[in-house]
Design a protein that fits this description.
- By secondary structure, the chain is of the alpha/beta class.
- It has a single domain, classed as TIM Barrel, CATH 3.20.20.70.
- It is 46% helix and 16% strand.
- It contains 11 helices and 8 strands.
- Strands 1-2-3-4-5-6-7-8 form an 8-stranded parallel β-barrel, surrounded by 6 helices.
- Helix 1 runs parallel beside helix 2 and helix 10 packs parallel to helix 11.
- The radius of gyration is 17 Å and the shape is globular.
- The model has no long low-confidence stretch (mean pLDDT 96).
- The structure holds 2-phosphoglycolic acid.
- The site of 2-phosphoglycolic acid has 13 residues, from strand 8.
């Protein structure tokens, strides 16, 4: 049985005072929940705050990006070892916003994946199709191509240390959610591709759904056999909503 995992992706939101209130309320709301795992991926400047508030709790923390380089003249970049220094468990890689707005290719995502694994962090590797691609009937091809970059290159041992997030681009921040059946179909497809590499790893792999997951749809999405939790954007900024989704993961 895979334990469910719910991770908040704060994106570029927050400030010290708001984060303090949000994390305080989330900590109080999830502290009794033991049947699932939880995390928040915060903007870099707030990693220290997340670390000091969440240390010893049942909420892990992480970042939303990292450099594939270990050190050097990369102005503005943040090295994997720096994230590890702040106790990051998770790092989101290949999010569609990184791919679309920052021109991150599959190859860059693969290099970042390796960097995260090397420094002992769990990559949350995102895949997903655009609306056009779904309408063109090429969802599986797109997802397979994004996934293959990691599968071909990382090997089963690394994939075993990974979380995959299926995030249909048309559902991110739009209020449109994939139906449980639509999401389940892609999740099962992802698991079957990983199974070609290693059946045991595929069976243990956590595949999160992301894209307008809210308290009102979280339980039915997470009831599907291959949906092992959620990567939550907008709703992770509202304590009651995030806590409600964390509770739904308990069932
Ligand atoms: P959303 O974002 O929940 O606001 O749709 C999810 C994500 O981009 O990870």
């Amino acid at each position: 049985m895979r334990r469910k995992l719910v991770v908040g992706n704060w994106k570029m939101h927050g400030n010290l005072a708001r984060n303090k209130a949000l994390l305080g309320a989330v900590l109080a709301g999830v502290k009794e929940l033991r049947a699932a795992d939880y995390g928040v991926c915060v903007p870099y400047p707030y990693l220290a705050q997340a670390q000091s508030m969440l240390q010893g709790s049942n909420i892990a923390w992480g970042a939303q990006n990292l450099s594939q380089h270990e050190q050097g003249a990369f102005t503005g970049a943040v090295a994997p070892g720096m994230l590890a220094d702040f106790g990051c468990r998770y790092v989101i890689i290949g999010h569609s916003e990184r791919r679309a707005l920052f021109h991150e290719s599959n190859d860059i995502a693969a290099a970042k994946f390796d960097a995260a694994i090397k420094f002992g962090m769990t990559p949350i590797f995102c895949v997903g199709e655009t609306l056009q691609e779904r309408e063109d009937g090429v969802t599986e091809q797109v997802v397979a191509r994004q996934l293959e970059v990691v599968l071909n290159h990382a090997g089963a041992q690394s994939v075993a240390k990974t979380v995959i997030a299926y995030e249909p681009v048309w559902a991110i921040g739009t209020g449109k959610t994939a139906t449980p059946e639509q999401a389940q179909a892609v999740h099962a497809f992802i698991r079957s591709r990983v199974a070609q590499l290693d059946g045991k790893v595929a069976g243990g792999l956590r595949i999160l759904y992301g894209g307008s997951m809210k308290p009102g749809n979280a339980a039915e999405l997470m009831a599907m056999p291959d949906i092992d939790g959620g990567l939550i954007g907008g709703a992770s900024l509202v304590a009651e909503e995030f806590v409600a989704i964390c509770r739904a993961a308990q069932q």
